[in-house]
Amino acid sequence: MSLLIGAMTIGFILSLLALGVFISFRIFSFPDITADGSSTLGAALAAALIVKGVNPLLATAAGFAGGFMAGAVTATLATKFKINGLLSGILVMTALYSVNLHIMGRSNVPLLGQQTLATYAERAGTKILGGRAGLNVGGWEVSSLDASVLVLTFVAIALAGVVLFAFFQTNLGTAMRATGDNSQMIRALGVNDGNMIILGLAVSNGLIALAGAFLAQYQGFADVQMGIGMVVWGLASVIIGEALVGTNQLGLTICGAVMGSVLFRLLVAIALRLGLNPNDLKLITAVFVFAALILPNLLRKLRSQGASLSHA
Amino acid sequence: MLEMRKVTKVFNPSTPNEVRALEGVDCTLEEGAFVVIIGTNGSGKSTLLNAVAGTFYVDAGTISLDGIDVTRWPEYRRAGVMGRVFQNPFSGTSPNLTIAENLVLAARRGLPRRLAWALNRKVKDELRERVRQLNMGLEDRLDNAIGSLSGGQRQALTLLMATWLKPRLLLLDEHTAALDPRSADQVITLTDTIVTRDRLTTLMVTHSMHQAANLGDRLIMMHRGKIIQEFKGAEKRRTRADDLLARFEEVRRAEQLDETAAEMLERTYV
Asked: At A137, which helix (H) or strand (E)?
């Protein structure tokens, strides 16, 4: 049971990553792989500041701000200097590796015994539950610490999702969605599309860094390698989410990205439990995303071929 | 109002594909003028429109609007005072956004976009009222994605969007060329209604001699990056589609003659 709760908590945390990837890949059609670096940046900033004794809320906010700036740099390279989008992301991601090492001072910063958002959540949970060590949820014995972390994570992510949804309904947010949809049109309506992309990727990487900051506090350490493969994980979550909700309505796709992230983590947990070698995880995720990208087209082709054969 | 002075543009300079698209074009539009541009393929008529819109920067010459030099203004900045409709009916609208969202984007052309809600009931009622005037039944489909509409409907909406806030200058780039004849007629009628009602200063490129003869109060003929003839006032009103065709035929002949004559001279004297 605690395995399940752990998987769900990580799923909710990484749904921020999924939302960030959703913004760059789906709203702007920008293949932004800065995420591998910015998620670590968020974790590194939060961990380094917490160890220095900074309030964990402030440290987490600093993580968001760091990702925000990283995204802005990637988008500036792409829009103002006309560098290929993929290459811009690679440049920033590579540079961030050194930046992250400098921030942390070494390759791994443990947070054991530190005040983090996770310990805050545990304390709040203990207060509300009156100090009981276990909870009975539908016949399952659940550690109250795990449960309170899960609930607070859920609340934080729900809040982020609602804010994001609301943002995309404003004048600014609508202009951003239109930029990804038809940049020629939005320029003709007097919008500087380059600035829209910069702001959009900044928000996207801010969310991704926030996921990194949460993850570091949840797992109790930040590691310079922790960001490897984040883009593909995020993309997998977005794709699962799209399959779950089956529409491109904005509110539902945001819910879908969160659900996709949780489902993906549950699947991973189950696969590991069934004896999957953890070393194969990234390979299998990559193969999954590959399949999800080509299957729709392949199925359509097969179907139209079948149709033409039956007509013949 | 709009002043173009010696506007020059060369595409792919010093390569085998060099195209002298505009060769020192001078043109002035008075306030409220409705100018139609016609020309052969590759004559530079669309290039001229794009130069005004700021799709690219010109190589030489100046473009000014209301006495302000806009030659170095980027496209989005000029769009604050210019409305535009493209040849491709899919270029002017955002397919995954709803009709209402597209319109409300146009309702803030050139204004800052901040964190106020894009749509509320009052705004939507206003949108519905103006969409009703199109007589296309779209007022009941404001929440549908605009990508689900036909090319003609989308072009009518693009025209409505381009003129939502009265632009200082309206640019129409062969905006009916990709439509079926019935939709093209509808859009042209709508264009005439809006331009006349709001007395918009308009620059319209067209491939249709019929439209050129019937619309606007001034006609510009372009050929090989230059303005070769203008019809104004009474002369413009008298001009018929056949006259324009005849004039183009004349140009073509003169050119052939020039080339053969040049060849003959070359053979004789060089």
From this structure: strand A134-137
